[in-house]
Specification:
The radius of gyration is 20 Å and the shape is globular. The chain has helices spanning 15-22, 38-48, 55-60, 76-85, 100-112, 127-137, 172-189, 301-312, 320-339, and strands spanning 4-9, 28-34, 66-69, 89-92, 117-119, 144-152, 192-200, 205-207, 217-219, 225-232, 237-243, 254-258, 261-265, 276-279, 284-286, 343-344. By secondary structure, the chain is of the alpha/beta class. It contains 9 helices and 16 strands.
C-alpha cells in the first residue's frame, strides 16, 4: 500500500508524543515540520531526524495529503481551513474548535470540498477502550442505565511550562480534558441527545508553580469546574465532572452501569489500562485486553487510521462528525448553565467502527 504523506504544523509540547508514535505506522510519510516559531520547528526536526520547513511551504507542497494540526486550540480551525483551501485533508489536536459555530464552519468546508477532517482524541482506539467496546457490544451490561465520567485536579499550572492558554477562551477542563471522556462515551454508548450542566470559575486568577514562570499569575477567562448530566440516545444517563479546582478525589475515570453489570473503563487520556467487569451478583474481575499494544502511547493512531481509510476508501474513525458532535456536547454544558435549561444536541454521530485488531506491526484492522 502506498504511503500517505503528511505535514505537521505546530511543534509544541504534544508534538513529541505524535512523532514518537508515528514511527510505529509505516503508512505515514512525514514530509516536514513547521511552526510560527521557526526555532521550535528546527529543534523538533533535529530531534527526530526530519526536515523543518515553513508553514507556507507545507501548504504549497503538492505531495502532502494530510496536514496534522498541533497548534493551540484557538488556531485549530484557522489552520484547518487553510489546509482545506490547499486541497489537503486536515487532522487536528483536540478540540476540533473552541466553539461549535467555528467547528461547524470547518466541517461544512470539508464537506463542500469533499475532503476529510479528523480530530484527536484517538485514545478510544487503544486496547483498553476497544476491550470495553467489545464487552458492551457483546451485551455484558444488559440494558445501559448510566455511569460517571470524572476528571478533577488542582490545575495544569502545577506542571505545564506555559499554562496560560488553559485559562483562556478555548481552554478550561471541559475543552481540555472533556474530549477524551465524551469521545470515549460516544464510542461506548453512542451519541448524546441532551445535556444539563453547571459551570463555575471559583477563582479569577491562578498562580503558576511550574518552571520557568513560577510565581507569575494568570487571569481566568473560562469556567474551571463543570458538572452535569449527559442523556444518551440509547437511554443511559451519565454524570460528568471536569475540574481544575479539586485537590484530590477517589472516583475512577469512567464507570458504566447496566441492568446486568458494571464496567470500569480505564483513563480515556491513555490508550491502555485495566478493564474490570462486575456481572450482577458477582465481583469485579479484570478483563483480557483486545490489543497487544494496549499500554503504548500511540497519539497518532487516528492519523494512521485516516491514512489507511484514504487508501481503502472507507470512513476513518476519529472523524469530523464525531469531533463536531463532541464539541457541541461540551459547549452545551456552558449553555445549559447560562440558560438554566436542558440543551438538546442537534448533531448526529455514529459510533466509530470498532477495531477488530487494534495494532499489529502498525497495521490497523478495517
Amino acid at each position: 500500500m502506498n504511503k500517505v504523506s503528511i505535514g505537521i504544523i505546530g511543534c509544541g509540547n504534544i508534538s513529541s508524543a505524535y512523532l514518537k508514535a508515528m514511527a510505529s505506522f509505516p503508512i505515514l510519510d512525514i514530509r516536514g515540520l513547521a511552526d510560527m516559531n521557526e526555532q521550535a520547528a528546527k529543534a523538533r526536526a533535529d530531534e527526530f531526524g526530519l526536515q523543518a520547513r515553513s508553514i507556507d511551504a507545507l501548504f504549497a507542497d503538492p505531495s502532502v495529503e494530510i496536514i496534522v494540526n498541533l497548534t493551540i486550540p484557538k488556531a485549530h480551525v484557522e489552520v484547518g481551513l487553510r489546509a482545506l483551501d490547499a486541497g489537503k485533508h486536515a487532522y487536528s489536536e483536540k478540540p476540533l474548535g473552541i466553539n461549535f459555530a467555528e467547528g461547524k464552519r470547518l466541517a461544512d468546508a470539508a464537506k463542500a470540498k469533499s475532503l476529510r477532517i479528523g480530530s484527536a482524541p484517538d485514545t478510544f482506539l487503544g486496547g483498553g477502550h476497544q476491550t470495553a467496546r467489545r464487552l458492551i457490544d457483546e451485551g455484558v451490561l444488559g440494558q445501559p442505565v448510566g455511569g460517571t465520567a470524572t476528571f478533577m485536579c488542582p490545575g495544569h499550572e502545577r506542571w505545564h511550562p506555559n499554562p496560560a492558554f488553559y485559562y483562556e477562551v478555548g481552554g478550561g477542563p471541559m475543552l481540555d480534558m472533556g474530549p477524551y471522556y465524551i469521545t470515549d462515551l460516544v464510542n461506548l454508548f453512542g451519541p448524546v441527545a441532551r445535556v444539563v450542566g453547571f459551570a463555575i470559575a471559583p477563582r479569577n486568577e491562578r498562580l503558576i508553580t511550574s518552571e520557568p514562570k513560577n510565581g507569575e499569575k494568570i487571569p481566568v477567562h473560562v469556567a474551571t469546574h463543570v458538572s452535569g448530566v449527559l442523556a444518551f440516545e440509547n437511554g443511559a444517563v451519565v454524570q460528568v465532572g471536569m475540574s481544575f479546582d479539586v485537590a484530590g478525589h477517589k472516583h475512577v475515570p469512567l464507570e458504566l452501569y447496566g441492568t446486568e453489570g458494571t464496567l470500569i473503563v480505564p483513563d480515556p487520556n491513555h490508550f491502555g489500562g485495566e478493564v474490570q467487569l462486575l456481572k450482577k451478583g458477582g465481583q469485579f474481575e479484570p478483563q483480557t485486553l483486545s490489543s497487544p499494544y494496549a499500554d503504548g502511547n500511540y497519539r497518532s493512531i487516528g492519523v494512521a487510521d485516516m491514512a489507511y481509510a484514504i487508501r481503502e476508501n472507507r470512513p476513518h474513525r476519529a472523524n469530523g462528525d464525531l469531533a463536531l458532535h463532541v464539541l457541541e456536547v461540551m459547549e452545551a454544558f456552558q449553555t445549559a448553565s447560562d440558560s438554566g435549561t436542558t440543551v438538546s444536541i442537534t448533531t448526529k454521530a455514529e459510533r466509530p467502527a470498532p477495531l477488530e485488531t487494534s495494532l499489529v506491526d502498525g497495521q490497523l484492522g478495517k
